[in-house]
Amino acid sequence: MEGLMMQQPLLVASLLTHAERHHGGQEIVSRRVEGDIHRYTYRDLAQRARRLANALAALGIGPGERVGTLAWNGYRHMELYFAASGSGSVLHTLNPRLHVDQLAYIFDHAEDRVVFFDLTFLPLIESAAPLLKSPKIFVAMTDRAHMPSKHNVPIMLMCYEDLIKGSNDEFDWPLLDENSAASLCYTSGTTGNPKGVLYSHRSTVLHTYAAALPDSLNCSARDSILPVVPMFHVNAWGLPYIACMVGAKLVFPGPALDGKSLYELIEGEQVTLSAGVPTVWQGLLTHVGERRGEFSSMRRTVIGGAACSTAMATEFQEQYRVDVLHAWGMTELSPVGTVCSFKAHHEALPRQDRYAVQSKQGRALFGIDMKIVGPDGEAMPWDGVAAGDLLVRGHWVAMNYFGSEGASPLRDGWFPTGDVAKIDPDGFMHITDRSKDVIKSGGEWISSIDIENVACLHPQVAMAVCIAARHPKWDERPLLLVVRKPGSDVDSQALLEFFDGRVAKWWKPDAIVFVESVPLGGTGKVLKNQLREQYGDYYLTA
Ligand code: AMP
Known about the structure:
Among the domains are: 12-208, ANL, N-terminal domain (Rossmann fold), CATH 3.40.50.12780; 438-541, GMP Synthetase, Chain A, domain 3 (2-Layer Sandwich). The protein has 18 helices and 25 strands. Helix 11 links the parallel strand 12 and strand 13. The protein starts with 11 loop residues before the first helix and ends with a helix. Residues 187, 234, 304-307, 326-331, 335, 361, 417-419, 431, 434, 440, 445 line the site of adenosine monophosphate (AMP). Adenosine monophosphate binds at residues 187, 234, 304-307, 326-331, 335, 361, 417-419, 431, 434, 440, 445.
């Protein structure tokens, strides 16, 4: 027998119409690239998103077509989130920290029809445009007064505010299929080129429900939320959608992510909840510590993207009375998978023991199922001791990559995360290692394979292996181990200079260690885990 309930598709635009109707007067505050602070309300957001949806239609952007963005966290980016997805096209956020060759590859692979960019990124657009195989429309996200008078974008450059001004604010959000694509985000693959994860309307709305819950990111209409995590990195962990669902005030930091600017914004806008990677919080804690400041409104901070150290969790909680929510996720998971929220029995533990619990990545949100498996694929016990490959499945987990001709990454319907973890009897997952061959520096990926490939282009290098070494500021940095060709005397400086222009500046290894040989396994593969054990603390001890 069928249930007798309405069938309403789960659509991204419904988050915006809800926010407009129920929280129309709630504020959205943005620090802009133009240097000032901009304020408006959800009512204004909705009206301008409708204008923008009309503008996209006038530019000829049809259903399912990709709308690229290269932008900081700000209200115009938020308008694009809803105008693009809501009207049936696909919001495609790109990471401006990538090398221009990679950006050009991604623009073309995604077949973006139009690219919206913040003024900061004009030089990047100028370098990428000549490399593109398919033509695009470029729109600078600013007003007429700030439009660049000179530029090298080969075709006409449009002005965002002109588009908004010239468009009607009446637009009926279409009743889309909830399984249609809403947004796209590329992640650095462990092998080969970056891969696109294509979120659906349904997966986005379900993720929003689950991530907003009290034991998840714990968001409400009484919150003032500062997403420091970029809107180009997995949709700022879903916070733009969550804020609409719950009616929270939103505070966008724009390009100013240093400790001082963040602190001013947190205090000035009475932020109650913030979210970002450990590296950003390190900068904030240093700034606040130096001036012996305190947080007058901030009550919680979500720390994820890389492991939150016990020292950081302790400092936030002991010194500043800011609760830490340690979270784990992935681009392929929209991204939130687990959050470390206490169960009732943890509350009674001594403080130090509670901090120890918080070093774990936490328990799964409803909607995510996880397991750990051994080399034979057999499920391992949740005893807090056995460690295995972490696999997940759920409503907002990718089943394949965008435009991928390759086989599905799934293993018997489960997505292999590339993380190695233990799970305790309470269901708290703890990452102990990573089987995927990538380096996460300040929350962003560096491909060790790309680094090795560049090093091997050097005529005096016989073999190069790049590993992630722990780093006090960036969490991890690339360390390159090199076997020289016989008779070669190439030194670190020359080899490091060889990287200039070949990879993004911040991808360059911090150091090179010359070795006689590297350990190989039975099949001739380099045993990177052995090298990580030997050299993993290089930057901590150097
Ligand atoms: P991304 O797709 O860029 O969001 O990166 C996802 C990966 O970042 C995960 O598979 C982990 O390797 C790592 N990661 C994310 N959150 C955490 C965390 N809380 N602790 C340790 N590693 C994390």
